[in-house]
Design brief:
Layout lengths: L8 H25 L13 H26 L6 H29 L3 H34 L7 H26 L19 H39 L4 H35 L6 H23 L3 H12 L4 H4 L9
Length: 335
């Protein structure tokens, strides 16, 4: 009797393939119902934003020293020091604005924070430029009206200038917050979003006007310095070479002051007039960064070069005044 079972390999193979296909169909059905979780992309930080934040940190630290020195020293209450303090405060707020802009751009993104940040930056930089103009006016008046400069009228005029420049700057900073922005219409954006093209045009034209006014005032200051140096040379019977050196030093100082201001702000001013939001952002960063450097240089030119501020800084740091500062006399070139 031939009762040995015969294995049907073809049937087993067919059953195995059918079972595998069924398993694949079940896996596909289950996977289609389970949501696929994709890994979130890492936070990409623009290197230009890091540079601007670093610049803002340096601006804040440097100008905070000047503000504290002037605020805590009662002897630094003359009109000149009030204007230098206004410049340092404006640059301090500008530095804080750059830092806040970096934090909000990557950690707290919203339209409200964007408008507040750009408003603070516009107001502070506007106050900084206006303070530079006010310092130029004060220097011109101190030379042109040398006999009556230290009077109550000059103090009153200084406070009027401070109120006007800060009032104007605050109004310019409030414009984006009050609705003059391009968040609803991308086509009206300028190189600095969310400022509109018209807004940046007004700011740029105002800067060019103030620069032209500063240039004219510094030309007049240069003439007065040269005339004073010549009169002092005649009174003390100085040599012509001494008169030439003193005059050249004064002219060089004025050229450095005005040249630095123009080199820092002129690229961004001209670029914002001709460009709009369609231009690559790298051009905006490349022209805006030198403008921030002006706030770094301002304390060096206007504050730390001043003899009285140097004395106050030495008292804070080492508790003494170097003999070189106490015996130093002011010359016509110290403008």
């Amino acid at each position: 009797m031939n009762g040995d079972p015969k294995v049907n390999f073809s049937g087993l193979l067919r059953d195995y393939l059918d079972a595998g296909a069924a398993t694949e169909n079940v896996s596909a059905a289950v996977s289609s119902q389970v949501p696929v979780v994709e890994p979130e992309p890492g936070l990409v930080v623009n290197p230009w934003d890091i540079v601007l934040c670093t610049s803002g940190t340096l601006i804040s630290c440097e100008n905070a020293i000047v503000v504290l020195i002037i605020f805590h020293n009662p002897s630094l209450r003359a009109p000149m020091f009030l204007l230098i303090g206004s410049l340092a405060l404006a640059d301090l707020l500008a530095g804080i604005g750059l830092i806040i802009n970096f934090v909000f751009a990557y950690l707290l993104q919203s339209e409200a924070t964007k408008l507040v940040t750009i408003g603070l930056i516009v107001a502070s930089f506007s106050a900084s430029v206006c303070s530079l103009l006010a310092i130029t006016v004060d220097r011109y008046l101190s030379l042109y009206y040398a006999l009556t400069y230290h009077s109550e009228r000059t103090v009153t005029f200084t406070y009027v200038m401070l109120i006007m420049l800060w009032g104007t700057s605050i109004c310019l900073g409030l414009l984006p917050i009050l609705g003059w922005n391009c968040l609803r219409d991308e086509s009206t954006c300028s190189v600095v979003r969310p400022l509109t093209k018209n807004n940046t045009a007004i700011l740029s034209i105002s800067f060019l006007f103030m620069f032209a006014l500063m240039l004219q005032l510094y030309i007049q200051i240069c003439k007065i310095v040269m005339r004073h140096a010549h009169q002092i040379a005649l009174q003390h019977h100085f040599l012509a070479t001494s008169h030439y050196v003193t005059t050249r030093k004064g002219v060089s100082t004025l050229a450095i002051i005005l040249g630095t201001f123009a080199a820092c702000w002129m690229p961004f001013t001209l670029y914002s007039l001709i460009a709009d939001y369609t231009y690559p952002s790298i051009y905006t960063y490349a022209t805006l960064l030198p403008a921030t450097y002006n706030s770094i240089i301002n304390p060096v030119i206007y504050a730390f070069r001043n003899q009285e501020i140097q004395k106050a800084l030495c008292l804070v740091c080492c508790g003494c005044i170097p003999s070189s500062l106490s015996q130093r006399a002011r010359s016509p070139s110290d403008v």
